Amino acid sequence: MTLPSGFVYFQGNGMIPKSRDGLKPVPFLKTYMVHAKARTYLSTMDSIEKLKVLSEDSQYDLACACGTNDNDRRHRGTDGKWLYPVVLPNGGYSVLLKTLLSNACSNDCKYCPLRNDSNVRRCTLHPDEIAKVFMEYLRRKEVFGLFLSSGVIDNPDLTMQKMNDTIRLIRRKYGFRGYIHLKIIPGASDAAVEEAVSLASAISLNIETPGEKHFKLLSDRKNYLHDIIRPIKLMSKLTSRGQRFSRVKCTTQFIVGASDEKDTEIVDYMNGLYKKLDFNRIYFSAYQQGLGKPDIPGEQKHLFNSEEVFMREHRLYQVDFLLRKYGFEKNDIIYDSSGNLSLDKDPKELWAESHPEYFPVKINTADRESLLRIPGIGLERVNNILTMRKGSKIKDFASLKIKGKTLAKAKKYVEFD
Ligand code: SF4
User: Looking at ligand 1, which residue's alpha carbon is closest to its atom 4?
Assistant: First the structure.
């Protein structure tokens, strides 16, 4: 008999899937009799095939601190699934199994390759399949946690029910208490959102655009205020300081360039999400032309430049850092006459150029807030400066090991005396 790929004989009386090194059997299959092994193998291989498709399709979602196109930041697991390094809430770094529960979707988001009229291979995992495969990965110490999202299977609450069932299994049946990032499905009821919050370590729902006007160009079916803003506000309320679920982190993501939004509108919304709704992180995903319907702005060539949109994404991340970590306010951000960030200069440098009264900053006496305003000087360098100057006076850039482009950016804004 020719063995299908992925099989080995085991003790001469049956076959089970190869393990990672191709030598040892996968332990949770050991106890089955021969025909049961075969049945288990079939369902396991089905799960793995589906997981391959669904983990690949989950790549468009960044709201779990994972990269997508950057292959340095993800790698394939033993079964071909993408595993994603992420930054942990406590600052550590580890790997998530990231997958969709289903890539079937009843929605019509015109920027999304999984929308209902797309011709893609559809499949859905059962909660038990995800739970088992995840626990197996965990047992092999290949991942530390799970990111679970999904297309909309029939309706948002049915989908949330399956996702919540999955997490309940992992938490209660298998006793996993670690990191789980759960996507909230747009349009989910308050009860479904509350249940998800009670089960997850982190939750996210993609806001996509800054406002209804821009979202209307991207979907005829989804209602921006009801399906997106309402659950986002509820997520914020349930997880705010002093609430029962304040340990649960909230994140969201904008898709940049699919609609006709301006950067200034994204930054306004970003500011509100941080300041009013207390969100933990906001992510930006440059729209990838060719994935959406021809009538959306992102698909119209005269409005879209693929290099520019990646630079826009990069500039928005820089602004995000300035607002979150550098003490900048929304009004400190400078835009061009069209309401967009400069593609040529970073937003901190632009602010410095238009505030000559603020400079030079005295390296040896300035407070932390002032040091953070110097172009080219980041958080880590500011911490170094604060530590070094406790010992003795800092004399020059060389003693700070600042050179090259950073030196060129910083030197006209600094004084050492
Ligand atoms: S809800 Fe919209 S964005 Fe999400 S999978 Fe369905 S079509 Fe794509």
Answer: 151
